[in-house]
Design goal:
The chain has helices at 12-29, 55-65, 86-98, and strands at residues 37-39, 42-44, 80-85, 106-108, 111-118, 125-133. By secondary structure, the chain is an alpha/beta fold.
């Protein structure tokens, strides 16, 4: 999805987020506020806390502890997960805050999309990169 393409929300939550984008863009065009919406992929990394997706921080806690730990990812085998690391989000936010002017009123974070594949562990499903998505050039 490009920054100029409108979202197509499928839930009340998504529609409410889209409403905020529309209102912010309207006030931005009028010069009343400085507004930028940042559409985030699933944020992962140490310290990430989510009641609905505890695994996002748990995988990094297990790595820090350097002990084998099973982390359950509650998704169907065919689903693709767009992931972005918390440090990358911080860098993007800082860039937007430091910008004197932005080209767009909304931005999609780049993401690495992961899907379930079969690894070398006795044929057990493992998560691995499926498609890498990078931001488009702004030429």
């Amino acid at each position: 999805m490009s920054e100029t393409e409108a979202a197509a929300p499928e839930s009340v939550y998504g529609a409410s987020k889209r409403y905020v984008e529309i209102a912010g863009e309207h006030y931005r065009r009028q010069g009343r506020v400085s507004f930028v919406a940042l559409r985030l992929a699933m944020v992962v990394g140490p310290g990430v806390e989510s009641a609905a997706s505890g695994w996002r921080g748990k995988i990094f806690e297990a790595l820090r502890a350097r002990k084998p730990t099973a982390v359950s990812l509650p998704y169907a085998p065919h689903e693709l997960l767009p992931l972005i690391h918390v440090i990358d989000v911080a860098e993007i936010v800082r860039g937007l805050v430091d910008a004197t002017q932005t080209r767009h009123a909304r931005y999609n974070t780049p993401a690495e999309t992961w899907g379930r594949g079969f690894g070398r562990c006795g044929g057990r499903p493992e998560w691995e990169p499926a498609i890498r998505v990078w931001p488009r050039s702004r030429a």
